[in-house]
Amino acid sequence: MTSHLWIVFTLIAAAAQTLRNATQRHLTATVGTGGATLVRFLFGVPFGLLFLLAAVIATGAPQPRPGGIYWAWILLGGVAQTFATALMLAAMNDRSFVVVYAYIKTEPVQVALFGLILLGDKVTLPMAVAILIATAGVLVMSHRPGAGREGIKPALLGLAAGAMFGLSAIGFRGAILTLNDTSYVMGASFSVVMGLALQAALLSAYLGLRSPGAIVAILREWRPSLLAGFLGAFASLFWFLAFALATAASVRTLALVEVLFAQAVSVFGFQQRTTRKELLGIALIVIGVALLVGAS
Fold first, then answer.
1. Global pTM?
2. What CA–CA distance (Å, rounded) separates 64 from 24?
3. Over the stretch 157-188, which tens digit does the pLDDT of each residue have?
């Protein structure tokens, strides 16, 4: 039973992340790319601490005793995710959300390679086929006629963001796997706090030197920033719980259901029609995800 909980955790994380991305994107207009990137970390720390306290009370598991390799993995995950978020927001400033999202969501292919090299996570042939089919579905859905005329910069930023998100997933999974002296719930909750605190400290120091006005702007926008922080910490908790139980490639491929969530919002929330191309993309994503779950 526990071995398949990663599916539930991933679906919850994907839904929360869809909402967080929309909130962060809105903040970019008022606090800038750097400020919007910091928001999810800085305002996420208090919520991460609350989640850790809940884990302590609920599980009664011993506190983790991380070694040096743990901090190396957390540093990799934290720094990579910070750059990934900034690259994603920068790309979205230059190009439509949906198209940039497609470039970012080449991540499962990249994370499968990183996982094999850095963690020794095995990718079976059925898993590889599932990853490629689901990723192809995202690309089909997001292709827009004339997209090539918009320039190569957003495409490169999106692909780079996908690579950085892939490295961050590997870093965080690597960190959690070293905490074998406690429960996976405690290890994931502890790592959420450590990751958020590290990212908040690094980015706050950078913005304090380069753009102190961004920090002032964040404080003025504390209400939406608080929501983004909560959603970010909530999503991170469930990503980490999933990473504790399954390979990063499996988790990040199933995470492509975010695209389906976004499509559902556009259809039911804004009464927008679904095109044949989007239906084909949805079908490929569903097939890929179904194959992945069956192969897990």
1. 0.84
2. 32
3. 778 888 898 999 999 999 999 998 889 999 99
What domain range includes position 88? 2-123+148-246
C-beta atoms surrounding 109 within 10 Å: 18
**What is the distance between the alpha carbons of residues 254 and 226, in angstroms, rounded to a whole number?**
28
Tell me the Cα Rg of the chain: 18
Q: Give me the number of domains the chain comprises.
A: 1
- CA 163, CA 84: separation in Å to the nearest integer? 8
Residue 214 lies inside a defined structural domain of this protein: yes
Q: pLDDT tens digits for 60-107?
A: 888 898 999 999 999 999 999 888 877 876 776 655 555 666 677 778
**Residue whose entry in the numeric block shows the structure tokens 């230059």:** 94
And the tokens for 42? Answer: 């800085």
Does some domain include residue 138? no
Place of tokens 């939406």: 224
The string of DSSP codes covering 115-167 is HHHHT-----HHHHHHHHHHHHHHHHHH--TTGGGG-SHHHHHHHHHHHHHHH
DSSP per position, 29-60? HHHHHHHHHHHHHHTTHHHHHHHHHHHHHHH-
Question: Residue ranges of the alpha helices (H) in the chain?
Answer: 5-42, 45-59, 68-94, 97-104, 107-118, 125-142, 153-178, 184-210, 212-220, 222-245, 248-254, 257-264, 276-295
Q: Look at residues 79, 66, 246 and name the one whose alpha carbon lies nearest to residue 87.
A: 79
